[in-house]
Automatic annotation (TrEMBL):
Keywords: Signal. It comes from Duganella levis. The keyword Signal applies. This is Gel scht. Residues 1-22 form the signal peptide.
């Protein structure tokens, strides 16, 4: 009887070693460097109370002469260029917002200064054609 138990334990040990080896091979195959097809990142949502947005509800003159205005309606936040319809913005932190198009609006100095990353996508969301650089001569 003890011989049977010993051989059964040896068989079980053999299966567990083979199983660990197969798991290690699968893990190394999954983490092996290779081409990445795509990476999807979504903006993290941040809950902001409408009263907290009051610090940003002003017009800002950009260094290119455009004027953007921030507003809110029914608990939603918006940015607009003068003479264009507004676009909804979504808070990601207490002083940063993002549009659906991917433009990031970052307030600094307690809301007195504004930086806009990917301004061309913000312009496109307002329906403004984005100027493209002229092609280099051949």
């Amino acid at each position: 009887m003890k011989v049977f138990d010993l051989s059964l334990a040896a068989v079980a040990l053999c299966f567990s070693v083979a199983s660990v080896s197969a798991q290690q091979q699968a893990l190394s195959a999954a983490t092996a460097p290779g081409p990445i097809e795509s990476v999807s990142v979504t903006a993290r949502r941040f809950h902001m109370e409408p009263r907290d947005f009051e610090a940003f509800e002003y017009e800002y003159v950009l260094n290119n002469g455009d004027i953007v205005r921030f507003s809110r309606r029914v608990g939603r936040f918006y940015v607009g260029l003068r003479g264009k319809p507004t676009v909804e913005i979504f808070p990601t932190t207490a002083d940063q917002f993002v549009t659906k198009g991917g433009a990031r609006l970052i307030f600094t100095e307690g809301g007195d200064a504004l930086n806009i990353d990917h301004y061309e996508t913000l312009q496109a969301s307002f329906g403004i054609p984005v100027a493209t650089a002229p092609a280099a001569p051949k």
